[in-house]
Amino acid sequence: MKTKGQHTITEITSQPAVWAEVIESFYARKDQVVAAYRTLPSDNVLFIGCGSTYYLSQAAAALFQGLTGIPANAAPSSELLLFPEQKIAAELFISSRTVDHHRANICAKLDLH
């Protein structure tokens, strides 16, 4: 039987190796990422996350912008649910109908009306 908190400790201690793999993978695909981005009708990339992944989205945005020169920001994903009509939704590479569709699905699952 695992001790209490073992999963969390394993996750935390694995982070340096995981981040090294992510950075290596990004460098290996940098040209593909930049080329794909340039086909999109936006001048900014938005990274999102909840809780601790929000902090990761901040790091990802900084890394992405530093490596590609393409402007990038981070935002809490709750902003998409609570304020989809504001600038944050406009920065996404999806239509406002898609935002409305996903917000409706999330609200239904959370029994929010």
Task: Supply database-style keywords.
single chain, 113 residues, mainly alpha, two-stranded parallel ribbon, flat
In total, how many beta strands?
Answer: 2
Task: Please estimate the helix content.
Answer: 55-70%
Number of H- or I-type helical stretches: 6
Contiguous uncertain segments of 5+ residues: none
Characterize the structure shown.
The chain is mostly helical and 113 residues long. It is 65% helix and 9% strand. The protein has 6 helices and 2 strands. It has a two-stranded parallel ribbon. Strand 1 (45-49), helix 3 (52-68) and strand 2 (72-76) form a beta-alpha-beta unit. The longest helix has 23 residues, at 6-28. The radius of gyration is 17 Å and the shape is flat. The model has no long low-confidence stretch (mean pLDDT 76).
Write the layout of secondary structure elements.
Elements: H1 6-28, H2 30-38, E1 45-49, H3 52-68, E2 72-76, H4 78-82, H5 87-91, H6 96-109
Task: Give a short synopsis of this structure.
The protein is mostly helical and 113 residues long. The chain is 65% helix and 9% strand. The mean pLDDT is 76.
